[in-house]
Amino acid sequence: MLDTLRRRNHVLPLLVLLTGLSLTWLSFNVNLLLFWLLFTLTISLCYLEVVTQWSFRAPRRRKPPLEDSMWTKIHHRVSDQLMVSHHILQNPTGRTVFICHGWTSGSQRMVGRAQLFLEEGWNVILIDLPGHGESESIPKWNAELSSTLIIEVLNHLHTSHKELFGNPFLIFGHSMGGHGALVTALRNPGRYRSVSAFAPVVAPTQVPWGQKAFTAYLGADASAWKEWDAVELVATAAERLPILVDQGDTDEFLRKQLRPELLEAACQAAGHPLTLRRHAGYDHSYYFIASFIADHFAHHAQAVK
After folding, report:
1. What percent of the chain is modeled with pLDDT above 90?
2. What average pLDDT score do residues 121-127 get?
3. Cα angle at 290 between 178 and 120, to 5 degrees?
4. DSSP characters for the chain?
């Protein structure tokens, strides 16, 4: 029942508020200090719960969907969820890259990032994450479910369009999409030749975003979270997939939510190949991506030589 309440964005904060106010009212005639402590705690918890609930909602205003005849659009029904992918197949024997967009973005905004790969004759796959583009929304943003749906869409494509997967496959993402790219690649040894990301969430089990989301969707057992955490997966990775991560040093999420130094330490301990580059003066925006996307192209090209 609690899991059901967590998936309803307004119910749990309301229950927190009502329970807290009830306890506060009962304490009024008992102890004035206790009354004010309970009142302050109730307001604080309610505020945090509301902020968290809204943080994990799919964006209400979606970016325009990708409507371009050059791209083949496919609707997938996976786990009772409608997901939409787009791809361009230029060469059945050529290389393929999957580009995963970030929070509040969409495939339409990834077209420019795909252009460098297309100009070099690569095949490109884009997927609208849940609640983005033309993919159906989920009640609340869920990194574990979103990553699972991405994998299922890729599996569908592998069955229906094998020509996209005939050669080494590469994966790239930004922000939450970067988290999805890292986890997808590390959880599927042998399928990808390289992976790269801009400003990814690398250790959700160790940051507020991930801890709140994983508790809600995977339960309180932190050991169950590890298979959706790139830092944890690196330690037991079945293959040493080369990773490139670019991070801006003025990113507003850097120190509290992204923490690339954790991935750096994990890769050093495991002997996993990682290139982590920190860029002065760059934030979390797409200008950051546009400035260094060519380096990611070179990274993937090197991996499949």
Report:
1. 41
2. 93
3. 90
4. -HHHHHTSTTHHHHHHHHHHHHHHHHHTTT-HHHHHHHHHHHHHHHHHHHHHHHHTSPPSSPPPP---TTSEEEEEEETTEEEEEEEE-S-TTS-EEEEE--TT--HHHHHHHHHHHHHTT-EEEEEEPTTSTTSPP-SS--HHHHHHHHHHHHHHHHHH-GGGGSS-EEEEEETHHHHHHHHHHHHSTTTEEEEEEES----GGGSHHHHHHHHHHH-S-GGGTGGG-HHHHHHT-SS---EEEEEETT-TTIIIII-HHHHHHHHHHHT--EEEEEETT--SSHHHHHHHHHHHHHHHHHHT-
- What integer pLDDT is reported at residue 7 of this predicted model? 46
Measured CA to CA, the distance from residue 64 to residue 233 in angstroms comes to: 34
Select the more confidently predicted residue: 38 or 74: 74
- Give me 186's structure tokens: 């590390």
pLDDT score, position 141: 64
Phi-psi sector, 58: left (phi>0), alpha (psi -120 to 50), beta: beta
- What residues are paired with 279 via a beta bridge? 248
Global pTM value: 0.61
- pLDDT > 70 fraction of the chain, expressed in percent and rounded: 87
Tens of pLDDT, residue by residue over 228-252, are 999 999 999 999 989 999 999 999 9
Q: How many residues does the chain have?
A: 305
The sheet carrying 123-128 orders its strands as 72-78, 81-88, 123-128, 96-100, 169-174, 192-198, 243-248, 274-279
| Highest mean pLDDT: which range of 6-20, 141-155, 190-204 | 190-204
